């Protein structure tokens, strides 16, 4: 099936092209004062160039932005920023356009400009669509639709619908695509928006062409072409001409197809639109290949591939690889054909997958649910207002009717009220005395409980390694330990045995008092494993603890419970020539940060440091449905390497501006950012970051992080 062009609709008003209007505006500029009027005229000229001469539009919008910034004209800055981004978009410079649209979203949000907020969301979605990031495209499209609907921006709602439909077309969900295109066409027709109506006719025609309904497709294309020729929009005209050519090619009319494709290419080159040139080269290559001119076709396909790689257009890159594979197969060069087919498959798999399709569907469902919820809330509020008015009217009527009766009964009511008040005061005095006594009893019990827990805290603190012991065993290290309650379910452990140092971070089931009980059990098992059994290999220690904890809980009659603990344990030693780290983990992974510029698999970092995650076994210590022996990892270390072990409390903490989890990805970035600092400053940075993230929210779980630097 031949891929056809879709237009992603950005949110701007297209004017009819006319040199006379541009010349008039330019003449006015020479006499314009250095103020908002000049900014508006510069933006007006940039708008006139949209879709016709992006370089000229870029030049005038950049002047408008500079002047608007100089005089502090917010609306002028927002409009100019959009026009600069759109010109970059037309020129196929998607990365630069994306940066400008994100800047526009930030500025419009700060200034509460709903029009430009919707515009920015839709434009960012369009760039993601061009680069085949369909989940991100849909997310931004629906965000723009929600803003536009809430604030009555009907044109922008139509553009959002049309753009969502293009995503469904790219995923070959034709019925959903036609549904959203129909919604957009209805809005554009009501508004008299000829350009957007014409662009959506093109996209609707593409759906019919791709579903083998050529009669409907050509009707939509021809109607769109007539409108665009009147508007003088060469950008969209190039697209519809190319699509008409593709339709002729599908019918086998190769001469007519070639003529249309050459016309489309000439327009795209004239506009400087590298992204638009890609399909033209692919289409011309397809015509040449069908004629048996395979060498000529391959040359066209390579031109298309070069443009796709420059503009990062993944879907176009996929098309070029596929066509190259077909052309080389027709030449019987199966080695090159297989090479390009493998590249085609790799790109295709990265774009079209079940997850991406499901995410797009989820975005639509979320948008529809939120929309229905707002409608229900509006109806509920409206009904509440009606009920309130009705109740007020009824109250007035009733009050008027019984007013005389109330006057007659007033004396009786005062007397009765006095008696009730006296009785109530007597009852209240009795209840207050009883409440005071109960309060005293409760306060005494609470004090006893709190004193007991405080004493338990001293006991738990006694089993934790002292700062002196930690410093002797691990001179360059820190421990960030932040219990949720007075006592904790997390604990850390350090021992120096002969030629090695063992250290561990343990997260027991629960927190508070239950977690503290489990931590005592875990601490005793660790000491037995090392001091009584003489175990030093991390995996062997975990296996011993697993058996010991299961046995302990069974002896207490709690074998049906899934109580246990997650844990990371390390052994660090130096054999005289190199440092060696042994590690084993029960659900708790280890992060290794090294000062290097080399990237490795499953690693992420910056130019100075790289973070590698050593995965833990996905099972806890304790009762588990299918326990397996724990894995022992051996890792050679260099001086200056950083080792981090931790429980899940830090990454699971809710907070930030949206009240979401901190998450491990952000935790990794934090560790990379503090890696150059001394260990004490790293600990302080972890503390400050958690406090700032948590804000006024409650701490969710115990937190424990150990950082060790290899000397």
Keywords:
711 residues; alpha+beta; 23 helices
Secondary structure topology:
Blueprint: H1 19-29, H2 36-49, H3 54-71, H4 74-90, H5 94-110, H6 114-130, H7 134-150, H8 154-170, H9 174-191, H10 194-210, H11 214-231, H12 234-250, H13 254-271, H14 274-290, H15 294-311, H16 314-330, H17 334-351, H18 354-463, H19 467-473, E1 477-482, E2 490-497, E3 500-508, H20 512-532, H21 538-555, E4 564-574, E5 579-586, E6 590-595, E7 603-605, E8 609-614, E9 621-622, E10 633-637, E11 642-646, E12 654-655, E13 660-661, H22 664-674, H23 679-694, E14 703-709
Antiparallel strand pairs: 1-14, 2-3, 3-4, 4-5, 4-9, 5-10, 6-8, 6-11, 7-8, 11-14, 12-13
Radius of gyration from CA coordinates = 35 Å
| Spatial strand sequence of the major β-sheet | 1-14-11-6-8-7
**Helix content bin:** 55-70%
Total of DSSP H or I helical runs spanning 4+ residues: 23
The portion of residues forming beta strands comes to: 5-15%
Mean of residue pLDDT? 84
Largest sheet: 6 strands, antiparallel
How many angstroms does the end-to-end distance come to? 62 Å
Low-confidence stretches: 10-18, 555-559, 599-606
SS content category: alpha+beta
Q: What's the shape?
A: extended
